[in-house]
Write the structure tokens for this entry.
Amino acid sequence: MRLDYLIRRVLLFFIIVWLAATVNFFIPRLSGQDPVREKLLQQAVSGGYVHTGMEAMVKEYEKKFGLDRPLWVQYLTYLGDMAQFNLGYSLSNYPKTVAQIMGESLPWTMALLSVATIFAFAIGSILGALLAWPRAPRFLQFLLPPLLTLSAVPYFLLGLGLLYLFAFQNKWFPLSGGYTPGTFPDWSSLNFWLDVLWHSVLPALSILLVSIGFWALGMRGMMVTVQGEDFMTFAEAKGLKGSTLFLRYAMRNAILPQVTSLALALGHITSGSVLVEVIFGYPGIGTVLYHAIREVDYFLIQGIIFTVIVGIGLATLILDLAYPLIDPRISYRRA
């Protein structure tokens, strides 16, 4: 791999992160809402009284969070903090920091979505390849209509159906939460792990069933394209076994676009499937982002979105650099 290409890709990564982070800074502020004032009013209403020194408190908190400074000063401070991964304090959960809140919720989302995404990728890619393979069992063709249907259903809509059927009507699974309410999280306990697994079945299933259709349809299309290539005709003329043709020639060449999509999907994991987590009351990063948007928590929104930006950027960069290892036909050397 050429050094100049590597340098260009890394520079492009930093430029994309900077542009996305800039948009991330300005968009929450376009609403014109004052998050400090709204939070103090919420606390006053919930307490049944109104603070007499509300304006003085608002000014003091705005000074503490730096919201009283000019916008361009806030922007430069924001860029400096992001460069150091200093995400600041949460406006709605003060004195908790954004890093603390994300540290508590991100493992839940990564465990749920990474496992569901990888399983969906593996199952969907194999099913899609078999659906397009002429020598595959005929009964697999009956899977195509359900896969087409499921791939068009939003995660949250399928989640609502599963929740109604298996949690509300039959009560086989819990209605919400990441573990049983009142339980103290003890990660050294097998019973707690089983409780967490039990609560994650329905959210994971809603993501898995929809994603399998997406991966299967993509792989099926690529397999159909690959089968018309000259190297497939040559391999068949050599009399190679059907399993060798399927795995080493057809599937290996068709999998590259799937790997690209997988890397981007894994990069999006840090954002969570927001509506799925909200519907199931799952304590992941998607639920945190939902509440942060509702409460206009600038710093928490910025921290989560910035993490998503970096995650997607890194996934794309690593994938780009790994392409020659996945497919030896790809080379970044100068011709």
About this structure: Residues 190-226 form the longest helix (37 residues). The mean pLDDT is 76. The chain has two domains: 3-83, 98-326. The radius of gyration is 25 Å.
